[in-house]
Amino acid sequence: MVGGLMNQFIGNANTYLGFGGGMRLNLFFKFKNITTGLNMDVLGIKRKKSFSINRSSEQANYPSSLLMGPFVGYIKKRWTVIAEMDYALLNIIYNSSNDIKDGFQTKGSGIGLTLSYGLPIGRSKLMYYYNSPNIFSQNVIFSLSLRHLSLQLREASGYMLELGAHYEMNYRGIQHFTLKKQN
User: Could you tell me if 53 and 90 are in contact, meaning their C-beta atoms sit under 8 angstroms apart?
Assistant: First the structure.
């Protein structure tokens, strides 16, 4: 699954960080009504106010952020509820050059809860893939997430709300099948 998202910090972190956006990439497996996999969000967030960091370098106007970690979810028809744990990274000051490592990153962890709804694109197609029959389907996924980020820099820690739209492609193997007799 790949897609775009918008995010907004709420609470104390909203004093320093504003509206942002980015992309999400999920690699996952589905087992009946359970899904599990790896999530990666790459975000750019508008800085509203300078952080209290004792550095002479200028802070980035749009600090980049990375959230990456495992997730597990429950699927009910077109709805999915996902719980995830993330490694979180926020680049506040970028390195001035490749040779000089004078940047500042704050690292930490995050937990999140995502509610998503999938709309199918067209009809599912039967395919013969890797010497077995499969059903290929495509979906547009709309998601709403609430995360709590605990970063080393206290001012950047807090809750983040995300809204996204994503493209999902699935191959589902057919375990048991019977061929019809032709007349």
Answer: no
Q: Which string of DSSP letters, residue by residue, matches 125-154?
A: EEEEETTEEEEEEEEEEEEEEEEEEEESSG
Domain count, the chain: 1
CATH code for the domain of 122: 2.40.160
Nearest by Cα to 82 from 45, 42, 120, 33: 33
> By mean pLDDT, which of 4-13, 136-145, 166-175 is the weakest?
166-175
What are the beta bridge partners of residue 35?
Answer: 30, 73
Show the tokens assigned to 103: 């940047």
pTM for the full predicted model? 0.86
Range of the domain at 106: 2-173
In a domain, 126, yes or no: yes
CA–CA separation, 150 vs 134, rounded Å?
A: 42
Q: How far is CA 178 from the centre of its chain?
A: 39
